[in-house]
Amino acid sequence: MSAATPTPQDSGLPPPATLPSELSAAEPSSDSKPTILHLGDDIRWNHELYAELQKKFNIVRTYSMGRDEFQKALKEKRWGDFVGMYRPFWNTGGEMGNWDGQLISLLPTSCKIYASAGAGFDWVDTRTLAAHGTIYCNSASACTESVADAAIVLILSCYRAIPWSFLAARSCDPKEFADANQNIAAVTHNPNGSVLGIVGLGRIGLRIAEKATRAFEMRVKYFDVVRMEDREKSVGAEFCPTLEELLATSDCILLATPFSGSTLLSTRELAQFKRGSRLVNIARGKLIDEDALNAALDDGMISAAGLDVHADEPNVNKRLAERRNVMMMSHTAGASVESHIGFERLGIENLLGWLEKGERGVVSPVNLEWLKRE
Asked: Span 51-70, mean pLDDT?
């Protein structure tokens, strides 16, 4: 995610404490502790937990570092044989770009865990990391509430033409205001009783379903690669065995699934939507063919869209941006102080859990099924 990091002053929380530079006599020396490579800025909130991390690990830092310099440092073994990496924020510590095979091949064989902020991991080749013997841990649970709240905003925007009304009022043009005031009622609807079709009933998809059913009395259908009967029962959801069935029978489609490397919705899939239905994406922009979406909006197959994410970030599709039936955000659905605090904490918990129990101790791994074990 690319949200601006709130300062401690903005959040009302105390500023970062000065990190200790020396270990007490009772603590093991840095030479006897395994090394963690901390990517990016200082932590801001979880200082007591970070102090616990310092007791167990020797922590070395990259701060802000571009890809070329980072690769050079790895080749030179500047940080030695570190056993893990810690990236507490989504918008710092990632200056080296995508974690592809080229970068992963330079990691020492001692590197067994990478704990990073953020829910999505399309920028990390998790299979190649696993083949290297490195567990990748994300932080999806930390931003679940924030993403789910933003998803509800986008869903309501699609049903109630919020962007049209907002832009008309914001224009300060009496004609634009009158046009929205007089004509929006004829094309907007309440979401109550309509079908929300969720692609991906993971932690975030489930939380959105809970909010949509309990607060707005929507009915939920879902499609996923694995049926989740306990989750579907908890929200009264109906499982669709195929994506095609979900698209054809839903009034609003919500994407809450990871990007696996290929577009999910293009011309063929968008033609399978119920005519006049809506599309919301809080997952990854590349899941949608934006040219095909523009065509579906022109045709009326899709009546409205809500997009937190975009295919070519930070560049936004101009045709989509010009539409008054498309609500847009700047990939900030998960951006909140609470998410930041959780990202920090969960990353540290993964590292401490790994040190104590190995792979059984990690909290949020995503690539264990492919992990190369010694």
From this structure: 96
